[in-house]
Structures are given as C-alpha cells and as structure tokens.
Specification:
alpha+beta; Alpha-D-Glucose-1,6-Bisphosphate, Chain A, domain 4; eight-stranded antiparallel sheet; about 20% helix; about 45% strand; ASHA1/2-like_C; SRPBCC domain-containing protein; START-like_dom_sf
Length: about 160
C-alpha cells in the first residue's frame, strides 16, 4: 500500500519467516547474538566490529565500528521477551530518506518452531521501490541470509 504526494508517503510491509527452533532460542539469538548472524552485506560501515541490539526500552540497535564510531539503526520502544521487539528509526537521505520507520518483530511458537513476523512501516520519502526493497531486506535478514540460517545451524 502506498500513497505518494511529491515523493512523501507511507510504505508498509509484513514478512513471516519460520525458524525450526524454540521461541526462547530464537529470541536469545535475535537480541544477544545479532553480531553473529547479521549479514556482512547489510552493514553500512566499512569495517564494522559488531552489530548490537540493546533489548530494553530506550536501547539502541546499532553498528559498532570501534573507537566510539558507528551507525544507529533503531531505538527500542517495546520489549516483551521472548515475544515482542518494537523499534523506531530514521532514514537519512544517504539511505533513501528523509523518512521515519517503525518495526514490530513478534515471535510466536508453532509446533516446536518459531514464526518470526516483521511489520515495518516507513513514513516520509518513499517510492514504488520502497516496499519491495523492504520486504526483500527483511526476508533476507530474518531468513536464509541471517537469523534463520544462523539459528538452524546452531540448533541440534
């Protein structure tokens, strides 16, 4: 769904990925081990040291480049372990903005597996490519290139 007026509008996507592991394991990997599963080509810095999710209200989601340098992706709005992580961030012009983004990640246990659902909304400068790009990015991040691949590799 997209409404645009002079390039300003709203883009909203929903993505679901099923991970063959219990919810507590997926949550732990999501918030405590992000630097281990975050795909290399998703970093914006040249020489990132880590990717960090501070899972507490007001916490940061950021790239750590060392020496107090880095990139802030999101601020944590809501944390309900092991089920909900809500984030808010800003897209600068270098990353397609100016725009504001809010993302809600929910983890639901289904028959020994975990369904990770991402709902992401971007308000600001959007175009016809924004939603497909977001959907593709979240699928890769939560799926075959990121969290799912990492957790399923680690889980016996």
């Amino acid at each position: 769904m997209m409404q645009a007026s002079s390039g300003v509008g709203i883009a909203r996507v929903e993505v679901e990925v099923t991970i063959a592991a219990p919810r507590e394991r997926v949550w732990k990997a999501l918030v405590e081990e992000a630097g281990r599963w975050w795909p290399r080509d998703f970093y914006v810095g040249q020489t990132p040291k880590d990717f960090v999710i501070e899972a507490r209200p007001g916490g940061r989601v950021y790239e750590d480049w060392g020496n107090e340098a880095g990139a802030l992706w999101y601020t944590v709005l809501v944390v309900e372990p092991p089920a909900v992580l809500e984030l808010a961030g800003h897209l600068t012009p270098a990353f397609g903005g100016p725009a504001t983004t809010t993302a809600r990640l929910t983890l639901k246990e289904e028959g020994g597996a975990t369904v990770v659902r991402v709902e992401d909304s971007v308000f600001g400068r959007v175009d016809e490519n924004t939603s497909p790009r977001l959907r593709e990015g979240w699928r890769a991040l939560m799926g075959s290139k990121g969290l799912k691949a990492y957790v399923e590799q680690q889980t016996p």
